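task queued by scheduler; priority normal; single chain, no ligands, no partner chains; default sampling; output format set to C-alpha cells
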Amino acid sequence: MKPILFALPGNEAMGAELCRLRGWEAGDWEVRSFPDGETHIRYLSEVAGREVILVCSLDRPNARVVPLYLAAGVARELGARRIGLVVPYLAYMRQDARFHSGEGVTARHFAGLLGRAGDWLVTVDPHLHRIHRLDEIYGIPSRVVAAAPAIAAWVVEHVGQPLLIGPDEESEQWVAQVAAAADCPYTVLRKVRRGDRDVSVSAPELAGWRERTPVLVDDIASTARTLIAAVGRLREAGMPPPVCVAVHPLFVGEAYAELLAAGVAEVACTDTIAHRCSRIGMAAAIGDAADALSACCDGVGI
C-alpha cells in the first residue's frame, strides 16, 4: 500500500508536489490550536497499518516542532505502521559543539527528540560543520538531499556567464558542488563576524571576472548580513549586481527587503521553506530519497 502524506501548516505546496510526483495519497486531517495555544491533531483519513509521511520544514522551529511531534505520536497511537519525517529544512544544527562553559550540544538533544517521533528522516543540506554526518547524532535512518544539482540547473538556465561566489569559507562546500555541476568557475570570500548582525568580508582579486555575472551561493539566509556584506564588496570591486541564491531562505525580520535594497539583480532560493523567492524545486529529489529510504526500511535493496 502506498504511503499517506500529511503536510503540516505552511507545507501544503511541498506536500501536494510530493504526492503529484510520487503518487502518494494526500491524507485528510485537522490541525488547529486551542485558545491557550496548545495544538490539536485529528486524523480524518485512516492511518492504521499505513506508512505515514509527515512534511514539515522547521524554520521558526519552536512553533513547529510540537505540532510535528504530536502529529507523529497521534499517528503511532492510531496504529500507523511506520512514520517518515520529511523535514526540508532541519533546525538546531548550529549548536554542534560546546562553545562556552554551561552550554550543551543542543543538536544532539534535538536529534533525540525527532528520533523518538519518526522512524526515518529526509532533509535537504543540513548545516553540517563539526558534525559531519546526520547518523552521528540521529539514531533513525536518514538521507540528506543535495540542493546543488537543482541550483546548478537553475543557474545554467537563468544566468549567462556565471561566476559562482561563496560569501564565506563555510559556503565553499556548496559553491564547489554547484560550480562543478554547472561547469563554471567559482571563488570564495573571507568573512569576519563580530556579532549576529555585524559582518564584513574580503574578496580575492576580481578584476579578471568582470565580464561574468556574479552568483552568490549560501546554504542559509537568516539575517542575510553575510550576503549583504558580500554584495557590497562585489559592487566595490566593480562587479555587476549579483544574483543571490540560498538553499534555505529563512530571512528573519526585514532581512529579505534589506538584501534587495543592497543592490542585487535577483534572489532565487529553493522551496525547502515557502517564501516569495522560492523558485528552485526540491520535491523530485526529496521524493526519490524518501522512497529509497522507505524501501530500505522494508528490507528492499539492502
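post-processing summary
- Residues 4-146+282-297 form a domain with the Rossmann fold fold (CATH 3.40.50.2020).
- Residues 199 and 226 are 6 Å apart (CA to CA).
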